[in-house]
Design goal:
2 domains; mainly alpha; Growth Hormone, Chain: A; 15 helices; globular
Length: about 400
């Protein structure tokens, strides 16, 4: 292995300490992106009268963000791949700050929706960068742990940020909540400039066409695992409220809180294992996720034990995205990780959309009790791809230079 990389400069020794401040800045960026995307979902009754629209149209502010992120990830990443990485990252954060400021001040639904589309484009760009950025900041042998630290921002946003943001909006007003989120993005720009190292973009002669990145050995396998896992997960997660009621446990908020707390445990465990046993840990996470589905399917009327499989489901799913993202960076290489991750961002959002749609059709035609049984074979396919897939894509151990 060469000791110098055009993508990251001199190779770091395996014993180099983790750059905690920089990694936590990236993790906070992930936290900010998730909170920006999902906060309107908890504020439907408060935002709708102020913008003079029905609550469903406030929900479209989340849909619009997701659609823009889905559509923009690949073309924007391809357009910006030659630029220095830190200015692009800071630009995405500035876009979050401006978008949230507009939402905080706007009384026009059309203007608010446009600001949300801009934030979605920034989100698509940001998600394509985070894992590759973390991988460049650390020795190869510690890549998985660095990615786990960064992606922990997602888990914290889902388990703590969104509920806390909703509660804050109830106390001080939804406009103030978006204003504070804008201020957080501004502070984060300074943090990134101060503590996150700069890396060059891809040199013109080194750029691999998008289709070639998509066909690199191992990349299709990792993307297919992403797709099947997200479709299977979202079939259940989107409709956890009717499923919980079907199981005799009507407190959906408690179920979501328990699931969120369990994902924190899952990502912590993954951070300990991902650099030592990535393949076994991913097989364990996917296997546990698959094993939980039939248990959930048999819980009709068994409200007292519902939270036990929910905890196991949260632990399993909490670690899976980090493991999959680490595998993708491994097969694409850090220098092509932004492009590869833009593909994964698109696949990830497609999985969410397809899973939500599939779950809705199942709920309408077969009822909530069928949801785990539809989810099971999808997660099982993801497990099977890892089990029989290339060991170059899902290696037993990370190479230590």
């Amino acid at each position: 292995m060469s000791t110098v990389s055009l993508a990251r400069g001199p190779a770091l020794p395996a014993s180099a300490p983790l750059p905690w401040s920089g990694l936590l800045a990236l993790s906070t960026a992930a936290f900010t992106a998730v909170l920006t995307e999902l906060l309107p979902a908890g504020l439907l009754p408060r935002m709708a009268p102020a913008l003079d629209v029905a609550e469903a149209r406030i929900g479209f502010l989340v849909t619009g963000y997701a659609a823009a992120s889905f559509a923009a990830a690949i073309p924007l990443t391809a357009l910006l791949r030659g630029l220095p990485r830190r200015p692009v990252l800071m630009g995405a954060l500035v876009a979050f700050a401006l978008s949230n400021a507009v939402v905080a001040l706007s009384s026009s639904y059309a203007l608010t929706f446009a600001a949300r589309l801009a934030a979605g484009c920034a989100g698509g760009t940001l998600w394509a960068m985070l894992a590759g950025y973390a991988a460049r900041m650390v020795p190869a042998a510690r890549r998985g742990r660095a990615i786990a630290i960064v992606l922990a921002g997602i888990t914290l946003a889902l388990s703590l940020g969104v509920p806390a943001g909703t509660a804050l909006a109830g106390a001080v007003g939804w406009r103030t909540a978006f204003g504070l989120l804008s201020a957080l993005a501004v502070l984060l720009v300074g943090w990134v400039r101060w503590r996150v190292p700069g890396f060059p973009g891809e040199a013109p002669h080194a750029r691999v066409p998008l289709l070639r990145v998509a066909s690199l050995p191992g990349v299709p396998a990792v993307l297919s695992v992403t797709l099947f896992l997200l479709v299977g997960h979202q079939v259940m997660y989107t409709y956890v409220a009717p499923f919980a009621a079907h199981a005799g446990y009507g407190r959906t908020g408690v179920v979501l809180l328990v699931f969120g707390a369990a994902t924190v445990v899952g990502i912590w465990v993954t951070g300990l294992l991902v650099d030592r046993r990535p393949r076994a840990t991913l097989l364990g996470a996917l296997g546990l996720c698959a094993a939980v589905m039939p248990v959930l399917g048999l819980l009709t009327g068994a409200a007292g034990v519902l939270l036990v499989p929910v905890v196991l489901w949260g632990i399993a799913f909490g670690g899976a995205p980090t493991l999959i993202q680490t595998a993708l960076v491994g097969v694409s290489g850090p220098e092509r990780a932004d492009v590869a991750t833009s593909l994964q961002t698109t696949v990830y959002n497609a999985g969410i959309a397809v899973g939500s749609l599939t779950g809705g059709m199942v709920l309408e035609d077969l009822g909530p009790g069928a949801l785990p049984w539809v989810s099971l074979p999808l997660v099982a396919v993801a497990l099977g791809v890892v089990a029989v897939g290339r060991r170059s894509a899902f290696p037993p151990r990370r190479h230590r230079p």
